[in-house]
Amino acid sequence: MNGEAHEHAAASGLAVARSLLQAVLTQMANLPLAILLLVSLAFVPLGVGLALLPPVLFALRGLANQQRRWAAEWSGVEIVVPYRPRPENASGFGIVKWLLRDPATWRDMLWTVVNSVTGLVLAGLPAALVVYGLEGVLVAPWMPNVHTFGWGPFWPLSDYGLTGSVGSALLGSLMLLVGWQLGPSIMRAYAIVNRSMLGPTRGRLEERVRELTETRSETVDASAAELRRIERDLHDGAQARIVAVSMTIGLAEQLVKDDPEAAARLMAEARQASGTALTELRDLVRGIHPPVLAERGLDGGLRALALTLPMPVDVAVDVPGRAAPPVESAAYFAVAEMLANAAKHAEAARAWVDVRHNGSALVMIVGDDGRGGADPAAGGGMRGIERRLAAFDGTLAVTSPEGGPTVVTMELPCALSSPKT
């Protein structure tokens, strides 16, 4: 019981502190952002608002995303990020159109106005109850000339003779108890209110279901094609060589008494063929899940990959932990495909790889100084990688003007396990 009591006390204390933080934040961030939004929208017809809107809206998204994280971490209320993906190569007026055409942007605007009130009243309620409760218990009893808390809602207590020190102590204790006990529940209610405005709309959820259905279909097709490739490679490669080895050994067995030299030559051929078959099997396994990933992680795997290419590749990896094996495998093959394209098609003299974890996703940037012109819409390996990443809710963006350079940015949402040691 003592352990549970300590846990509840800690949760209540955190709820009160977070309540105070939210109340202050709404007045220092939400209210100024709401005013800036109104001013920016008002000046859009004059052109000035077009320059003001993007930074203000990005700041609003940052604040809304912080609220989403706090709702999940503090109250266990998950709020899905509803924003539409940014169009490739969007800049200038294109960014403004993308932002204003996203329904989530307008819901954020509504939220920042509403939250200026709900954040102060609802989120700040636990802190207000505790602060006023402490005042009633510790301050008001020593100020007999001051009526209980000095404000209206507690005047009816005078009808029962509960004025002055006694009334202040009783009311203070009650408010302190309510604020302390109900703090976590009030903060959860505030998170639920935020979810109603910051979460995806029904239309967005339906759109997301369609996206997931398409992604699932593409993933199934890609998996089927991969299985057919493995079957073909086994049948035409290693299996054929193993059959040939078996036949060669059979011939050697027949010749071992009559022509030992010929039998020895056949056994040497069989040994060479078995070594070739083993190499092909190893290559096939690497194509499914490279052993180097399990042994050395993504960092070591990419550095080993870079050494096999016919051009110098600069590799920088800053991933403080391990992603799930399927995610690491997808990341490895995505980078491998981009580097293969740089070597085979782009006629690049140098390439570079930068892989980092931004807290929620693996961000992989692969660039080369080749002739450019890469386009995922043309199909091929790049389109296959795009489908592979989509199975993990990943994205791929390509910047590749004619004449180069080519820069491919890929993101894979994932969490990391224990840090590297």
Question: What order do the helices and strands come in, and which of them pair?
Answer:
Elements: H1 2-42, H2 48-75, H3 93-101, H4 103-123, H5 125-139, H6 164-198, H7 202-255, H8 260-288, H9 291-307, E1 313-318, H10 325-344, E2 351-357, E3 361-368, H11 381-390, E4 395-399, E5 406-413
Parallel strand pairs: 1-2
Antiparallel strand pairs: 2-3, 3-5, 4-5
**Order of neighbouring strands in the sheet with most strands:** 1-2-3-5-4
Q: Runs with pLDDT <50, length 5+?
A: 145-163
The largest β sheet comes out as: 5 strands, mixed
Instruction: Give the termini distance in whole angstroms.
Output: 38 Å
Gyration radius, in Å: 33 Å
- Residue-averaged pLDDT, rounded? 77
Task: Write down the domain tally.
Answer: 3
Shape: elongated
Helix content: 55-70%
Number of strands: 5
Question: Number of helical runs?
Answer: 11
Order of helices and strands: HHHHHHHHHEHEEHEE
Q: What portion of the residues fall into strands of 2 or more residues?
A: 5-15%
Structural classification: alpha+beta
Outline the structure in words.
- Residues 226-293 form the Signal transduction histidine kinase subgroup 3 dimerisation and phosphoacceptor domain.
- Helices cover 66% and strands 8% of the residues.
- By secondary structure, it is α+β, with helices and mostly antiparallel strands.
- It folds into 3 domains: 1-200, no CATH class; 202-288; 292-413, Histidine kinase-like ATPase, C-terminal domain (Heat Shock Protein 90), CATH 3.30.565.10.
- Strands 1-2-3-5-4 form a 5-stranded mixed beta sheet, with helices on one face.
- Helix 2 (48-75) crosses helix 4 (103-123) and helix 10 runs antiparallel to helix 11 (381-390).
- Residues 145-163 have low confidence and may be disordered.
